[in-house]
Amino acid sequence: MKPKPIYVELPIHTDMESLWEATQRPDHHEKWDLRFSSITYLPKKEGNPQRFSYQTKIGFGLRIKGWGESVGSYQAKDDARTSSLHFGTDQKISLIREGRGYWKYKPESDNTVTFLTQYNYETRFGKLGSLFDILLFRPLIGWATALSFDVVKRWLEKGEQPWAQYTRFFTHWSTTILFAFVWIYHGLVPKVINQHPAELSMLQQVAPVDTQTAIMFVIIIGILEVLFGVGWLFYRKKRQLYRLQFIAFPLLTVGAIFAAPEQLTAPFNALTFNVALLVLTWVGWMASRGVPTAKNCKRKQGD
């Protein structure tokens, strides 16, 4: 199966020259494009394409180094501009062997420019590489392209620096994944699967019920916690979840201390644990406003 080209489109409320400079100057381009760690233009002879080198950090100290060349053109009829691109890398660890694509800048009314790209590439590692590309890598790099487009949009429209946007983005999603793990783990392991004695004891201190009833209530509470944790992964309105945690963590802290005050002398007790989570809730809350997202972009032509 031949993979479809990656396509991303986004209207940006700015003038043509500002967008052209933000996307064509390498020192600006590398600020907002998540796909590249650095871009360096090479010496250019008049009349030849602009050649450049790029690097992409992939973690664990590894980098993909590649080459590229671009040609910018101006279309007089509709004042649109196009920048064609040819890129690739000789590094054997890179899934991408070589590719081609373009950026297009279409002026619209009310000082808006539609910024779009389409590109495709050849892969290494035979059928296994093609399968990995279709199942994981291509969706991931398409998402990174769309996220980067939203970052440059916010930069030009609102003046938000790309580094600040990415800091907010990764802080928000780090706390999101953390809270999902905490709620799912603490609901599933000590309540649904194990019914830990400490959980049963605290419940019976608050509500005088027999052991079987306590087990049933602990399991129900655990299921609710698991569902809340799953909500962190899939519910879009994350700020509502943060609001619930601003209420839940103080109540859980007071309830745990009331049920078993002796635990305050133990290491990593309910007070220190829940206060830490409350602070992280505040950090996540502060980072969750105006987070850039790939969902603002069109991903198919004609959408």
Automatic annotation (TrEMBL):
<keyword id="KW-0472">Membrane</keyword>
<feature type="transmembrane region" description="Helical">
    <location>
        <begin position="241"/>
        <end position="260"/>
    </location>
</feature>
<keyword id="KW-0812">Transmembrane</keyword>
<feature type="transmembrane region" description="Helical">
    <location>
        <begin position="213"/>
        <end position="234"/>
    </location>
</feature>
<protein>
    <recommendedName>
        <fullName>DoxX-like family protein</fullName>
    </recommendedName>
</protein>
<dbReference type="Pfam" id="PF13781">
    <property type="entry name" value="DoxX_3"/>
</dbReference>
<keyword id="KW-1133">Transmembrane helix</keyword>
<dbReference type="InterPro" id="IPR025695">
    <property type="entry name" value="DoxX-like"/>
</dbReference>
<feature type="transmembrane region" description="Helical">
    <location>
        <begin position="173"/>
        <end position="193"/>
    </location>
</feature>
<feature type="transmembrane region" description="Helical">
    <location>
        <begin position="134"/>
        <end position="152"/>
    </location>
</feature>
<feature type="transmembrane region" description="Helical">
    <location>
        <begin position="266"/>
        <end position="285"/>
    </location>
</feature>
